[in-house]
Amino acid sequence: MRRFLFLLLIGLAGAAVLVRLGNWQIQRLSWKQGVLAEIETRIDDAPVSLPADPDPERDRYLAVAVRGTMEPGEIDVLVSTKTLGAGYRVIAPFVTDTGRRILIDRGFIPASDKGAERGTGLMSVTGNLHWPDEIDSFTPDPDRGANIWFARDVPALAKELRTEPVLLIARSETDPAITPLPVSTEGIPNDHLQYAVTWYGLALIWALMTLYFLWRTRARSRSSKE
What we know:
Helix content is about 35%, strand content about 25%. The protein has about 230 residues and is of the alpha+beta class. The protein has a domain at about 45-170: CATH 2.40.50. The protein is elongated and about 90 Å long. This is SURF1-like protein. It is found in: Cell membrane; Membrane.
């Protein structure tokens, strides 16, 4: 009887912990969906002027419109997309009509277009401010000789192109040959539902295993008595 009660207690406690973890992930899912909805609203807001002192936290995804001069001297960042395949993001310096020098992510070009001339000069650009977190310990150093970078490291790009560490990702076209890759929530992970299903599945397995061991213990107890 003691062994039976011990197994029952362990089974109930373990299942309760696993169910609680599943419930927590459901709560996190609801929170994350709210965050993503806020980001999407911010992305789609009416564009405003470039802030005087953009902050990577406060102004992330802020919709901005600028007018000025797109300058030559781009940096090509290697990228692969689901729909367009492999190619490069074109990062170029842009001087606003107020004299500020910032970075513009103009969008995607296929690998075959690397080195082609781009449209420069006076233009208006609408997009969203962003400071992508794309650097980790496995990111290779840029190949400056071939003008190939492997991540949008805003401080490093700004130093290379002598701009402010401010990146505006264009959602308006800046050149007919460049496909804009505007900011979206697509790349923001939201795996809480999968985690919840995993925890609930483990709870079910734990409960079934507990029932099996209880049945086996009781069967053995009956067998020994007979």
